[in-house]
Amino acid sequence: xxxxxxxxxxxxxxxxxxxxxxxxxxxxxxxxxxxxxxxxxxxxxxxxxxxxxxxxxxxxxxxxxxxxxxxxxxxxxxxxxxxxxxxxxxxxxxxxxxxxxxxxxxxxxxxxxxxxxxxxxxxxxxxxxxxxxxxxxxxxxxxxxxxxxxxxxxxxxxxxxxxxxxxxxxxxxxxxxxxxxxxxxxxxxxxxxxxxxxxxxxxxxxxxxxxxxxxxxxxxxxxxxxxxxxxxxxxxxxxxxxxxxxxxxxxxxxxxxxxxxxxxxxxxxxxxxxxxxxxxxxxxxxxxxxxxxxxxxxxxxxxxxxxxxxxxxxxxxxxxxxxxxxxxxxxxxxxxxxxxxxxxxxxxxxxxxxxxxxxxxxxxxxxxxxx
Length: 371
Description:
- The structure is a single chain.
- The protein has helices at about 5-20, 30-55, 60-75, 85-105, 110-115, 120-155, 160-195, 205-225, 240-245, 245-265, 290-305, 330-350, 365-370, and strands at about 230-235, 270-275, 280-285, 305-310, 310-315, 320-325, 355.
- The protein is of the alpha+beta class.
- Strands 2-3-1-6-7 form a 5-stranded mixed sheet, with helices on both faces.
- Helix 3 runs antiparallel to helix 4, helix 4 packs parallel to helix 6 (about 120-155) and helix 9 crosses helix 10 (about 245-265).
- About 35% of the residues are buried.
- Residues about 1-25 and about 360-370 have low confidence and may be disordered.
């Protein structure tokens, strides 16, 4: 079987996957949480140590360092809530960086204090992601540079341009490499996520992705008392296509059908290839009547326009079973069983048709099933 892809379909699928990534681009946060806890622990130890050393010579600095240690201890229990990782990181890093700048102002040896400034881009990109990490790093490093220059001018000291240039070069190098590393990491994560959740032939969602999205939408429907519908589709006489034209053409037909299905859906809907010539469509916020309408549009789009490539013309049709969350089932197993039964009724009834639970005008059947 060929493994070629329709580039536009693949690009659209990747775009949907990219959009679903969290806004602060921090997927798989467990390792970030561990790093944040370790950093907080080190902050407590280091600030207590330096607070003790500076207690007599720099009382204000020592007080701020001990306060930062206490603040880190108070924030640490909140890191148990993974969803708050980004906010807690921001709440922790901003005071910590401010303390670095204040230490630069008070330090009699600014070159020593600069060492702490150089860790800012590493920590920021690691804990805050590429966007916030970049802006916060640039902001604090620029402030540090301004403070260093103003201090030198106010003290009447001659700036060692060689030393200053090296510090700037090292700081910019760390900033750039931290940003490139984070951009590469996010890109690799998205690509792996796309490959793991996408059918490699049609670029539709695969079964794994479908199960994940269904569970999320089912929980949303149950929580908000909203509607949800499932469509199961099966190409009619697809074996004959493979037998007559070969599997390469069969693969192209599947990609053509996948594109046709995708073009008839909303961005909030999910189309999936379950395997072979069987597809599924998840319709959030759609009741049975509307779902049947969508199914008819998809069916008609496939049956009205045959697959054409060169001299090859292949008429197509699809049978569809429609099930509605709540009435036909409250989990995927129940919904799938009903939709699958209706799909085979469509097959038995002559194919190229949509089958669903009968709707009465006064909804008597619906009410009876609901009870």
